[in-house]
Structure prediction request, 256 residues.
Amino acid sequence: MSLDYLKKVYDEILSKQDFGDDAPDYSGLDSHISMLEKMAEVENSSIAIHDLYRNKFVSITPKFSPLTSFDLNDAFEQGPAYYISFMHPADIPRVLDTYRRMSGFFAKIPIAERKDYKTILNFRLQSIEGKYLHIIQQIVALELDKKGNCWLSLTLSDILPAKTKFNKVNRRVVNMKTGRYFLFDSDIDKSHKTVLTIREKEILGLVSQGYVSKEIADKLFISVNTVNNHRQKILEKVKAVNTTEAVTYAKKVGLM
Prediction:
């Protein structure tokens, strides 16, 4: 797909929001950028702030750009479509469909709740060597305008371990307060009901009760390293970003 076509699709998606003639209040933007750049250093993630009112990036911290042909100036000039131009061709239609449906869903959420949701999806980006990196991306509404439109969105992207198998673009919208899934519920693969071992279920249960790895190790008479290995395997099996999300997923599909 050409970059011009991708830009056209993005314009179509963004047109679902009616900003009117009143520009958003940009007075707090610099503080957002400063805080998120520090967050990027701590999390070792790629973080981007997208201004949907002007349809441009206002901040990008591209942690994995050395692994791709990513050019920061081009990204600022061309906007989000630039990222998609690096994406595996087979993943693009489903990713664009995710953005379309996410935009429509967001418009139906009560304004007071719009910052409570995040969208999670995975896809592949081409590396500088011509291979593909497995990316997990999280998107949240950072700021709303007076009408309740999302005018600043935050995207956090991470590279998954090379051993993590890619099957397809998985996507879900989750309420960060309740842990409940929305919109792409039918995409959740419920065949994972028997995928966790007894030990993994035991550890996940203790995690859900608030125990840290050292406490779990003491309770089960195993090493902390063994606990952490189990936790990593759990994340890989249920395709979760962190153990909190793994617990939510496990409860939803009947693992716990």
